[in-house]
Design a protein that fits this description.
Elements: E1 2-6, H1 10-22, E2 26-31, H2 34-43, E3 45-50, E4 57-61, E5 63-67, H3 72-81, E6 84-87, H4 94-111, E7 116-120, H5 127-136, H6 141-150, E8 151-152, E9 156-159, E10 173-175, E11 180-184, E12 198-201, H7 205-228, H8 234-239, H9 241-262, H10 266-280, H11 289-293, H12 296-299, H13 307-316, H14 322-332, H15 340-362, H16 369-378
Parallel strand pairs: 1-2, 1-6, 2-5, 3-10, 6-7, 7-8, 11-12
Antiparallel strand pairs: 3-4, 9-11
Bound molecules: nicotinamide-adenine-dinucleotide and D-Mannitol-1-phosphate.
């Protein structure tokens, strides 16, 4: 069995590749990082080490890689032969890889009539659906019909904290012990793949919203508030009493929305929150704030971890999401000079002021109570 996985980065090697290899797939990574691609082809294996007291280590074997910049034709061949395609490249890259995926799938339809699932493992709502849209933009109407018969793009939620790696062994990945990978079974075409560690569910929405609006909202708040406090890592941020208070208060707000919307058991949800807070303070992980804060424009988007739960707060509850607004204000102030989106965000603020920036970046209307609440926090 062959799995083609786009993105041999932190989560690609540290989680997706590792689970797929354990499930018996040969994993063919596709990446633009020549050093990592060459090393993967040279060694054909890499180490995954648990960031925990006992530093348990496993070796992921039977892997290879293709440099999609140098050998795009090889990528098409791999997609034509694959039993599964997955991605973990970042939401902004999905549009870029969609051309290769479209061409690979076209090649496949010329060769064989075998169904294929393409699963985007990105931190976003509807990642695979978005990738499908981008792929379908490249097709004729006849090709779209043909693809509908053969290919599916089930959405997924993936959770495992994998920080940026600074190991001497460039392929080795240090990962937290916890992991969760949930896939929308209702959209699977053909047989449901057997992958230990993957949970297939009929309705993904509660799972992805629970994950994005708890793990990622909490993480973003810790990162942006921690940055404003001059701190360096997520652990440092969580050890700052003011940041910790804000993270917890924000997760109480998102939790209230989720419990109301999905009828979750509130005690169980609180246990989920506590587990996440303890994951953020894992002493064996050195997760630098710029990784977690990366891409503030994406993170301030209308359907992402900050604005979406804040909007839903008005929809499902009384009162205002005061703490989310504090976190959003910290995100709007994020000016890390090595983050291109932070630079763009700050130039928008300079040019248009906060109100217009919030409307444009967060997809909100002037006069919206949320805009007013955020502005109040910024003053
Ligand atoms: N790291 C985590 O803790 C974590 C956890 C869950 C989900 N995710 C999600 O997984 C995705 C990847 O995150 P990451 O932390 O692994 O980032 P990363 O930067 O470590 O990995 C991304 C990889 O994609 C590669 N890439 C970039 N452009 C490409 C292209 N055109 N074609 C092929 N490969 C390309 C990069 O070279 C890199 O190796 C993101 O959507 C992220 O939100 C990350
Ligand atoms: O990957 P991003 O930029 O969407 O978010 C940064 C982190 O919050 C994220 O990577 C988490 O570590 C991960 O989602 C944990 O499962």
């Amino acid at each position: 069995m062959l799995a083609v996985h786009f993105g041999a980065g932190n989560i690609g090697r540290g989680f997706i590749g590792s689970l797929l290899s354990d499930a018996g797939y040969q994993v063919c990574f596709v990446d633009v990082n020549a050093e990592i691609v060459d090393l993967l082809n040279e060694k054909q294996e890499y180490r995954v080490v648990l960031a925990a007291e006992n530093s348990e280590e496993t070796t992921v074997r039977n892997v290879k890689a293709i440099n999609s910049l140098q050998n795009p034709e090889e990528v098409l061949e791999a997609i034509a032969a694959a039993d599964l395609v997955t991605t973990a490249v970042g939401p902004n890259i999905l549009g870029i890889i969609s051309e290769l995926i479209a061409n690979g799938l076209k090649k496949r339809t010329e060769r064989r009539n075998q169904p294929l699932n393409i699963i985007a493992c990105e931190n976003m709502i509807g990642g695979s659906s978005f990738l499908k849209e981008k792929v379908y933009e490249k097709l004729s109407d006849a090709e779209k019909k043909q693809f509908d018969q053969c290919f599916a793009f089930p959405n997924a939620a993936v959770d495992r904290i994998v920080p940026n790696q600074t190991n001497e062994d460039k392929l080795m990945v240090s990962v937290e012990p916890f992991y969760e990978w949930v896939v929308d079974r209702s959209k699977i075409i053909g047989e449901v793949p057997t992958i230990e560690g993957v949970t297939f569910v009929e309705d993904l929405t509660p799972f992805i919203e629970r994950k994005l609006f708890t793990v990622n909202t909490g993480h973003a708040i810790a990162a942006y508030a921690g940055y404003q406090a001059g701190l360096e890592t997520i652990k440092d941020a969580m050890e700052d009493p003011d940041v910790l208070r804000l993270v917890r208060a924000t997760l109480t707000e998102t939790g209230a929305v989720l419990v109301k919307k999905y009828n979750f058991d509130s005690t169980e949800h609180m246990n989920y929150v506590n587990k996440i807070v303890s994951r953020f303070t894992n002493p064996h992980i050195n997760d630098e704030i710029p990784r977690v804060a990366r891409g503030p424009i994406r993170k301030l988007g209308p359907n992402d971890r900050l604005i979406s739960p804040a909007k839903q707060y008005y929809q499902y509850l009384e009162g205002q999401p005061e703490n989310l607004a504090k976190g959003i204000a910290a995100a709007l102030r994020y000016d890390y000079p090595e983050d291109q989106e932070a630079i763009t965000l700050q130039s928008k603020v300079k040019e248009m002021g906060y109100e217009e920036t919030i409307c444009k970046v967060c997809g909100l209307q002037e006069g919206d109570p949320l805009v007013e609440l955020i502005i109040r926090e910024l003053n």
